[in-house]
């Protein structure tokens, strides 16, 4: 009866886990569709770019969900007392590990395909479409030509990762042919893991840079924007009306100089042209402010103002939890790791951080720890989106695109999805930095022998007691997550991630100070002279 009850409880946990994952997939697909449709330009929307953006964004979010699934599966194979479950023999454990590994292969291969082929191809296709008198065949040929460069880079990364030896041959006097043979044997034994890991780690470096720029700033900007809110539409409209009157007066003053028939000087003509452009922008802004002031959405957002403040305060606490944990984890690596040659890797926690202490406590109640990990990952991604919206997409000092509700060009959406794909790759390492032992082993325990004592005297009897899995555990007693294998295949990438974490903390502090000093945002997104994709007849209802 007890065994049957235990088996039933275990099956219930597995069913609950897969149900949560299934619901998460449906939620991800719905969110991606709503998000892309919300931000894409209604005047320039294209079917292929829309589908590509939704698919890429969904792949990014689903890949981020692999980490809690990986941790859940390795933890599910063992009981809390440290013994393997009855069904979890060597073959079954190996099958589960292979299934997770193949899942990573599949999703990471799709990410490589999107980053190095499909997204660049669709981007260049629509860039060529902007040219006049360009046929479909010419667009495809030119897009393929430009995309070929990305494909070559991907092939080079795979080749370097495949043939860079992680282990040197034992015989130093071996011939060149024996060395080449050794490389191919090592490639076959790793089943291509090294090649894929090197390519993904290279992209993760780019994701680290994107996280430093966008995510670190988004973590400070998102909660503070929710707390501060936006300016009053009525007050902004009053200011805008005063600006219109002032510009009209300047225009009348300049035009009065030519009443007697004399032509205006070149300087006055340039000033007049600038003032007329300014007047058109202000009148366009006036129409949008009038629409938003009278819209039901403005009144609805006003009613939700207290809730936004609560969410903003909650997000600040989450950001502080994340940043403090990351700081203590990096400090632990600086003090107790073997140095840069080992990639600053540590297998335990000498300095406890809040998140590393919270996860073991939540492990006692299934599935609270997996829910917390999922929330942290989603928070990391949502703050990245907020950072991209606030900063825009830049190439060094040149702004390429803005991300605006209902007015984002197809190329900008493709850039957004590519950046999010790269940031998602870096998310797994960020979570590992916060809780290394949990990411490696989950909630697994193993047995250690302990001598029994009687009345203060140590006896000869031994007792097996469960202990949390760590780096000292026997390989046959604890199963390492596949995430860890992908993260630490090459030490030099781990060293780069370590320094990237310090840069992330620095940008967060600077972004927090800047966000505190900035005033309230406008009730509408900025209307400039270059906003050619803005429709005068259809202002954005969801601008608040």
UniProtKB/TrEMBL annotation:
Keywords: Cobalamin, Cobalt, Developmental protein, Gastrulation, Lysosome, Membrane, Transmembrane, Transmembrane helix, Transport. It is a multi-pass membrane protein. The chain crosses the membrane at residues 15-36, 48-69, 105-126, 146-166, 193-217, 309-328, 370-400, 412-432, 490-514. Belongs to the LIMR family. LMBRD1 subfamily. Interacts with ABCD4; this interaction induces the translocation of ABCD4 from the endoplasmic reticulum to the lysosome. Interacts with ABCD4 and MMACHC; this interaction ensures the transport of cobalamin from the lysosome to the cytoplasm. Interacts with INSR, adapter protein complex 2 and clathrin heavy chain. It is found in: Lysosome membrane. GO terms for cellular component: clathrin-coated endocytic vesicle; endoplasmic reticulum membrane; lysosomal membrane; plasma membrane. GO terms for molecular function: AP-2 adaptor complex binding; clathrin heavy chain binding; cobalamin binding; insulin receptor binding; protein transporter activity. Its main location: membrane. This is Lysosomal cobalamin transport escort protein LMBD1. PANTHER family: LYSOSOMAL COBALAMIN TRANSPORT ESCORT PROTEIN LMBD1, LYSOSOMAL COBALAMIN TRANSPORTER-RELATED. One of its GO terms (biological process) is clathrin-dependent endocytosis. The lineage of its organism: Eukaryota, Metazoa, Chordata, Craniata, Vertebrata.
């Amino acid at each position: 009866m007890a065994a049957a009850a235990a088996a039933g409880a275990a099956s219930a946990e597995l069913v609950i886990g897969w149900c949560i994952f299934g619901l998460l997939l449906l939620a991800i697909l719905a969110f991606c569709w709503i998000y892309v449709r919300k931000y894409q330009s209604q005047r320039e929307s294209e079917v292929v770019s829309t589908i590509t953006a939704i698919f890429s964004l969904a792949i990014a979010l689903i890949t981020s969900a692999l980490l809690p699934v990986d941790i859940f599966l390795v933890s599910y194979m063992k009981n809390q007392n440290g013994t393997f479950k009855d069904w979890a023999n060597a073959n079954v454990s190996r099958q589960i590990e292979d299934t997770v590994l193949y899942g990573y292969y599949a999703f990471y291969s799709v990410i490589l395909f999107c980053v190095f082929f499909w997204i660049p191809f669709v981007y260049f296709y629509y860039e060529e479409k902007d040219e006049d008198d360009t046929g479909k065949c010419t667009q495809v040929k030119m897009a393929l030509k430009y995309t070929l460069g990305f494909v070559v880079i991907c092939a080079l990364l795979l080749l370097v990762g495949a043939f860079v030896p992680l282990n040197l041959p034992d015989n130093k006097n071996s011939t060149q042919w024996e060395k080449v043979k050794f490389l191919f044997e090592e490639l076959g034994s790793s089943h291509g893991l090294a090649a894929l890991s090197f390519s993904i780690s290279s992209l993760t470096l780019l994701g680290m840079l994107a996280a430093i720029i966008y995510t670190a700033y988004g973590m400070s900007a998102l909660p503070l924007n929710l707390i501060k809110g936006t300016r009053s539409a009525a007050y902004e409209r009053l200011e805008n009306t005063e600006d219109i009157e002032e510009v009209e007066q300047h225009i009348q003053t300049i035009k009065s100089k030519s009443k007697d028939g004399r032509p205006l000087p070149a300087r006055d003509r340039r000033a007049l042209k600038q003032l007329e452009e300014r007047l058109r922008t202000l009148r366009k802004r006036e129409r949008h402010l009038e629409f938003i002031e009278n819209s039901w959405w403005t009144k609805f957002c006003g009613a939700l103002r207290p809730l936004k403040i609560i969410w903003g305060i909650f997000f600040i606490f989450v950001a502080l939890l994340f940043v403090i944990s990351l700081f203590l984890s990096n400090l632990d690596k600086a003090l107790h790791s073997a140095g840069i040659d080992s990639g600053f890797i540590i297998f335990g926690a000498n300095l406890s951080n809040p998140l590393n202490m919270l996860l073991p406590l939540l492990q006692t109640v299934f599935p609270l720890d997996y829910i917390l990990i999922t929330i942290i990952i989603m928070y990391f991604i949502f703050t990245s989106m907020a950072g991209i919206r606030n900063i825009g997409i830049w190439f060094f000092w040149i702004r390429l695109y803005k991300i605006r509700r209902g007015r984002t060009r197809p190329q900008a959406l493709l850039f957004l999805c590519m950046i999010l794909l790269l940031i998602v790759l870096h998310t797994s390492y960020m979570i590992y930095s916060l809780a290394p032992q949990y990411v490696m082993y989950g909630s697994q325990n193993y047995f250690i022998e302990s001598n029994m004592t009687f009345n203060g005297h140590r006896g000869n009897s031994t007792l097996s007691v469960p202990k949390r899995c760590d780096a000292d555990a026997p390989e046959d007693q604890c199963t390492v997550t596949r995430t860890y294998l992908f993260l630490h295949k090459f030490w030099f990438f781990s060293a780069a991630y370590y320094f990237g974490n310090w840069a992330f903390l620095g940008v967060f502090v600077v972004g927090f100070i800047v966000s505190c000093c900035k005033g309230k945002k406008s009730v509408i997104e900025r209307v400039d002279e270059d906003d050619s994709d803005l429709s005068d007849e259809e202002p954005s209802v969801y601008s608040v």
